[in-house]
Predict the 3D structure of the following.
Amino acid sequence: MNFEAYLGFNGRTGTVYLTGELDATTAPVFRSLVEQAAERPLDRLVLDMTGLRALSSAGVRWLAFAQQKLPPTASIIVVGASAEVVATIRLAGFDQAITIADRGGAQS
């Protein structure tokens, strides 16, 4: 599966939709979308990972990049991530800095 990503806005919420695999090769696309989102006054950036099959350690670093680009008051919310992707985020310790909503909508 090829990596695809696009950005949408609804008020002060930006959403990056991700499919495929986020790794060192595909990260520049993600970075570009985060930079576009950071140009707007956002309260939250939602990362819709419903279609994301894999997240490498390089991909996790780009999640940290997203957090650095946003205002300190903005939150990052991961939605729809598979158990494998969530495990990668938690293994990196990044789950302490973001909100992870499970596929049913509950947050951790």
Strands lie at 4-10, 13-22, 44-55, 75-79, 99-101.
